[in-house]
Amino acid sequence: MDVQELVTWLQERSALSLLNREILEAIASRLEHRRVEAQNMIVTEAKSPEGLYILRSGHLEAESDQLRSYGLLPGSVINLQELLLNKPVRQTLVTLSECELWLIKTEAFNQLVSQYPEISQAFSQQLVEEVEALSSQLVYEQERLLILQPYLVPKARRGIVGRSRYAVRLRSQIKQAAKNRQSVLVFGEPGLEKDNIAALIHFGSSERRKPLIKLDCSTLQTSGSELLGRVGGKPGLIEALGEGTLIFNNVHDLPPELLPVIVNLVRTKTYSPVSRPGEPAAPTKTCEAQIIIVSEKAISELNSIVDNLIKVPPLRVRKADLEDWVKYYISLICRSKGIEKARVTPEALRRLQAYDFPNNLRELRNLVERAIIQLQGGLEITEEIIWPSQTKKKQFRLNLLNTYPGLRHFLRSPWWPDRINYGFTLTAFALIIGVLFFGPQTRSENFALNLFWAWWWPIVLIGFPFLGRVWCAVCPFMIYGEVTQKLSLWLFPRKLKRWPREIAEDWGGWFLFGLFALILLWEELWDLTNTAYLSACLLLLITAGAMIFSALFERRFWCRYLCPIGGMNGMFAKLSMTELRAQQGTCSAECTTYQCYKGGPEKGEGMATNGCPLYSHPAQLEDNRDCVLCMTCLKACPHRSVEFNLRPPGIELWTTHVSRSYEVALLFLMLGAVFLHHLPELQTQLNLPWNLLQPQPHLWISVAALSLPVFIPLLAHLFIQGIRQVFPNFKSCSFVELAYGYLPLVLAGNLAHYLRLGLSEGGRILPVALATFGLDGEGLPVLVAHPAVIGFLQGTVLIFGEITAIILTQKIARQSFKFLLPQHLAIGILTVCLWQVIVGY
Ligand code: SF4
Ligand code: SF4
Ligand code: SF4
Question: Is the minimum distance from the CB of 631 to ligand 2 under 6 angstroms?
Fold first, then answer.
């Protein structure tokens, strides 16, 4: 190319066209030709320019830490500003392809500038214009940022968690919507993080560097000016956004006036800024953003016009993803709290699987967070601490604490149960044990023995239908356990062991069943009821269990899993007409401390406690088995969530109950115990030649008495199974579930048995008390019921037990009476047998 051709090229293709021909000829005559291979640096940022470059052919790219990258095309003049202003180079330039360039070295260019001052004049003017353009661009960007700032979404919160086919489909729908950048409707129930799915679409698209804004439709102005802008006023959000992505969140809450605007926007991608009344309508503008609509309800006007529809499945149909979600939330929350990551047990997961999660992921996250707070440094999330709210309504409950504020006051006072326990029971129990060991050995002469068999048993049994497991709140065995625990920690400061829950859940019940069976045999073979020191040994045996396990494990492990009396109490407590529970709504929504469970310092109205001694949470109790009515939770709760309710007796047995096989075994053991206590009557009635004075036959007959009664219910269940074969519509429960139907009868049988002792001997306590100390109590008042009265009361109790057992069976099975006839007959037969041995006529 000669000089003239070069001048023409410069005039036509480069920014030097501002200069006159004479100057261009002077420049052209000094240009040196350069060829540079691809991927070479021709100028380097922050260095002095080598000279002025003019790109003739090829592609260059500018790279800089501060400025955005951009490409340069043929005709670009390089380093002009730097040479005129005598500054270092602003950006590194790299050849993307082989490039041809012209170069005027710095010295030669400076000579030209001094020779032709028009060069600097022309380009100074251009520089001023550029600076003006840049600053107005900057002002516009700042204004735009100010408008968008409150709505900007910087990133997606998380990806799609899970491996189910629903999760896979969701991922592919997001990918598709991100690729085509057309309108999307994300639709689903509350709590499914639909706005996060919208964000994933944006950040998965090619426009991920453009802004993403989220508008909450419930707060949009009905005039639409915030969204569309005003004629002559500041730009609306759509204009300020430009090519980004616009999420209309909660579109079901959109003001109705704006629905046609959104429909038009989705359909035509155009809108008109809002004009004042009387002014002509503003010309339409084009929306360059991708529009994503998020809704909880179907909106027919939008459903039909969007290009992509994503239906987000609720958590209850994605149960396969539940484990992944739980683990994800555990890591997230543990990381944010800076604690070691916890593990979730399979039982806990199973419990969650059975729940429907009406509030979906939001609810699951709250649940995991609550469980982690309750962990107290533990590393295992068990089913006791991760519990969903129950969906069943709390029907037929009357909170006695609200009805009788005095009761609340008493139960929160130090009197219940600490002052009773430490002020009275502790000493009284020691005294009773002493009297049993050192006093006379028969019931007619030892008041402690009389108290145990003729008072304690009937009172505890009568108490179950009214106050459940209340005995355990004032039980002396455990008071000694608590004393041992405190004393041993004081003497040997250490951290008590955590509960081996899995083993205890599997085997604890069977341990207490076995111990109870041995105690019953011991009682029968060694005549404990009439041998004071052996009765004392029995009491000490249970106390020793409580003391040993309290010294080893934290809280009341013995009471929760191992105590035979506790097992019986927990079982019969299910029939109670009262219950202690907490309001699940309050616990889930308001509580962050869970002091009822964990314990802790005073907070608001909540007192300082060590937390539930049984590691039960009052809001998750499904039956009375695991609550000893100690009222620790009532004292600890700062939110008045704990209730003490009056309820239909035993309602949990046909609503929330979970059956346990060891408990059913214990139930029939208690049934057998009634027959065991009446072996002489059985012998007479059946006219059998038993020799109960010989230990070995006595032992075998006792074992038979304990175990044979269960065969009647088993036979009845076989018949029920037979009926099921004939009537396929009849859905029968398992034996373990239906067996709880016998519970009222078993309680009635035991009560009827102990009524005789209570009503014939209990009233002799005063003369017996004197006889204990070798004094003559003749003449002291005695209250003894007539045998006919006792018989009448025993019979009434048995009939009441029979009727309630039949009703309970119906309630548990929820089947027609005729299908359950075998069990009803079994209840009838057992009632007759019990009547025969207890009442006797
Ligand atoms: S479970 Fe046993 S030791 Fe514990 S409080 Fe109840 S009766 Fe007493
Ligand atoms: S009972 Fe009270 S302390 Fe316990 S979780 Fe509920 S509100 Fe919190
Ligand atoms: S739930 Fe409450 S009343 Fe029941 S044992 Fe636990 S702390 Fe005591």
Answer: no
Quick one: tokens of 810?
Answer: 């119906």
| Whole-number Å distance between alpha carbons of 349 and 174 | 29
- Does 623 fall in a domain? yes
Cα-based distances in Å from 381 to 362, 376, 621: 19, 11, 17
Quick check: 472 pLDDT over 60? Answer: yes
Are 7 and 119 contained in the same domain?
Answer: yes
Both 495 and 631 in a single domain?
yes
Ligand 3 pocket residues where CB is under 6 Å: 580, 612, 614, 616, 618, 627-633
Count: domains in the chain: 5
Q: Give CA separation, 161 vs 167, 208, 311, 360, 417, in Å.
A: 7, 21, 16, 14, 49
**Is the pLDDT assigned to residue 394 strictly greater than 80?**
no
Domain identity same for 420 and 497: yes
Residue among 472, 478, 561, 580 whose CB has most ligand 3 atoms within 8 A, to mutate: 580
Pairing assessment for the beta strands 32-36 and 77-78 based on DSSP bridges: unpaired
Q: Does residue 151 belong to any structural domain of this protein?
A: no
Exposed, middle or buried: residue 719 (CB in 10 Å: 0-12, 13-18, 19+)? middle
State the closest ligand 3 atom to the C-alpha of 642, by its place in the atom list counted from 1. 2
Stretch 551-564: mean pLDDT: 97
Where is average pLDDT lowest: 264-278, 640-654, 734-748, 824-838?
A: 264-278
pLDDT tens-place string over residues 724-741: 888 877 777 899 999 999
| CATH number of the domain enclosing 355 | 1.10.8.60
Task: Show which of 619, 654, 689 is a domain's final residue.
Answer: 654
Contact 587 CB / ligand 2 (< 6 Å): yes
Predicted confidence at residue 589, as pLDDT, reads 60
Burial of 366 (0-12, 13-18, 19+ CB in 10 A): middle
pTM: 0.62
pLDDT of 585 higher than 70: no
Can you give the pLDDT at residue 69?
Answer: 60
Q: What is the whole-number distance in angstroms between the Cα of residue 268 and the centre of ligand 2?
A: 54
What average pLDDT is seen over the chain?
Answer: 90
Greatest mean pLDDT range, 66-80, 380-394, 456-470, 723-737: 456-470
804 & 676 share domain: yes
Residue 229 in domain: yes
- pLDDT for residue 46 is more than 70: yes
High-pLDDT (> 90) share of the chain, %: 58
CA 385 to ligand 2 center in whole angstroms: 13
309 and 321 inside one domain: no
- Is the distance from CB of 312 to CB of 188 less than 8 angstroms? yes
Assess if residue 702 is contained within a domain: yes
Q: Tell me, what CATH number does 238's domain have?
A: 3.40.50.300
The parent domain of residue 93 ranges over: 3-130
Of all protein residues, whose CA lies closest to atom 7 belonging to ligand 2?
587
Same domain, 532 and 640: yes
248-266: average pLDDT: 91
Three-state SS sequence of 744-755 = HHHHHHHHHHHH
CA 478 to ligand 1 centroid distance, Å: 6
Residue 247 sits in the same domain as residue 366: no
User: In this structure, are 102 and 84 located in the same domain?
Assistant: yes
- For residue 698, what are the contacts with CB-CB under 8 A and spacing of at least 6? 524, 525, 691, 692
Determine whether 623 is exposed, middle or buried from the number of CB atoms within 10 Å of its CB (0-12, 13-18, 19+). Answer: buried
Of 110, 130, 150, the residue that ends a domain is 130
**C-alpha–C-alpha distance, residues 793 and 757, integer Å:** 13
